[in-house]
Write a structure and sequence with these properties.
The chain has 13 helices and 14 strands. By secondary structure, it is an alpha/beta fold. The strands form 3 sheets. It has a 9-stranded parallel sheet. Strands 7-9-10 form a 3-stranded mixed sheet, covered by helices on one side. Strands 13-14 form a two-stranded antiparallel ribbon. Strand 9 and strand 10 form a beta hairpin. The longest helix is centred in the last third of the chain and has 20 residues. The structure holds beta-D-fucopyranose. The site of beta-D-fucopyranose has 13 residues, from loops.
Length: 389
């Protein structure tokens, strides 16, 4: 029984440091979670304690049949104070990479996943021109770790990050319709920082790109021009900036309707997930097609999934997302991998309520429990389960 995604297709799951490691105390997000009067509902705390339990997490991923693990290096740990690079923290990530090798898992590494060191953000963050040099200096410090990775992602979802800058939002608000317009200055420096990082990562011979999160805007009759203007700073500019990279990565979960008055939330009548987003599995295939059409590059799905307490619905969503991707491949899309968000239930930028994981854990003991969806995806990856089952 085959699923025809082809030999060499990358099958894996993704996480991000701040969302699973716990106690990321030198990061800007930690500061924000604990600021007096913060609008963030819940702090990250110990998260899934994956900082100490990564070996078990990698083992669970490998045992399911998945063969790739995307995780992020945490800049706030590696450079907790400007100019001080922690050898011990670099060693920590070196051990994680070695652990992947022991389990036959290929790492894909994200250099920046939403969090920055607190000192960086307090000193102007991505709104300052010197952010480009500061990020490049960090990338140089981690270069010796990167050659074990099959792919490196520079900055996760720069389009959402540019919308988060200036806003105090998190969780379910992490989509264009609920966020402020992207900060144009930050947009410019994020793109410049990406380009510097691409050069640096290429110097160690690893494929490099960045994951953009297209929003699957669709227009009401008459709102087509509005859609174009709305989409350009929110996604297109970041996809155009990927031209010339080794690949383009995409992450998508839902879609957004654009009316003559702008974006509107999904109506009450449609099924919604725990983030309040419309249940819409074709989103990722539409995102992949758009990214390829703009860049001409091979495409990697670096995140896709659903926040739900009903694991059977997670399987339904993922099956339909993969079917839609498979149909795009039949129509010529050069797609070379699928990484599910997320390996673990995690801190969804303000709340633990939206559960995206293939694995859950006990908040007191941190004991892991794989969900049926982990075995299901592993079987699809191994080609022993078809998408028609
Ligand atoms: C993406 C983020 C990821 C996670 C998912 C649900 O925007 O990259 O950290 O929050 O959404």
């Amino acid at each position: 029984m085959g699923h025809d995604f082809g030999d060499g297709f990358i099958w894996g799951a993704a996480t991000a440091a701040h969302q699973i490691e716990g106690n990321n105390v030198n990061s800007d997000w930690w500061a924000r979670e604990h600021a007096p009067g913060t609008p963030i509902p819940e702090p990250s705390g110990d998260a899934a304690d994956s900082y100490h339990r990564y070996a078990e997490d990698i083992r669970l991923l490998a045992e399911s049949g998945l063969t790739s693990y995307r995780f992020s290096l945490e800049w706030a740990r590696i450079e907790p104070v400007e100019g001080h690079f922690s050898r011990a923290e670099l060693d920590h990530y070196r051990r994680m990479i070695a652990c992947c090798a022991e389990h036959g898992v290929t790492p894909l590494l994200t250099l920046h996943h939403f969090t920055s060191p607190r000192w960086f953000t307090e000193d102007g963050g991505w709104r300052e021109e010197r952010s480009v040099e500061r990020f490049a200096r960090y990338v140089e410090a981690v270069l010796p770790l990167l050659d074990a990775a099959s792919h490196v992602f520079t900055i996760n979802e720069p389009n959402i990050l540019a919308m988060m800058i200036g806003g105090e939002k998190g969780g379910e608000e992490l989509q264009a319709g609920s966020l402020p317009a992207p900060d144009p200055v930050a947009t410019r420096y994020l793109i410049a920082a990406h380009k510097r990082a691409v050069e640096l990562v290429r110097s160690v011979g690893v494929a490099v790109g960045w994951p953009v999160a297209p929003q699957q805007f669709f227009a009401d009759p008459g709102a087509e021009e509005m859609l174009k203007q709305y989409a350009y700073p929110r996604e297109i500019v970041f996809l155009e900036a990927a031209r010339g990279d080794d690949f383009v990565a995409v992450q998508a979960y839902t879609r957004t309707r654009i009316t003559l008055d702008g974006p509107v939330p999904a109506p009450e009548t449609v099924e919604r997930t725990l983030t309040g987003w419309e249940y819409y599995p074709p989103a990722i295939a539409e995102a992949a097609r758009l990214a390829h059409d703009i860049t001409g590059l091979p495409v990697l799905v670096s995140e896709n999934g659903i926040a739900t307490a009903d694991d059977a619905r997670r399987i339904d969503y993922t099956r339909d997302a993969l079917r839609a991707l498979r149909a795009e491949m039949d129509a010529g899309l050069p797609l070379f991998g699928y990484l599910h968000w997320s390996l673990l239930d995690n801190y969804e930028w303000g709340s633990y309520k939206p559960t995206f994981g293939l694995v859950s854990w006990d908040p007191e003991t941190f004991a892991r429990t794989p969900k049926p969806s982990l075995a299901w995806l592993g079987e699809v990856a191994r080609g022993v389960r078809s998408l028609d089952d």
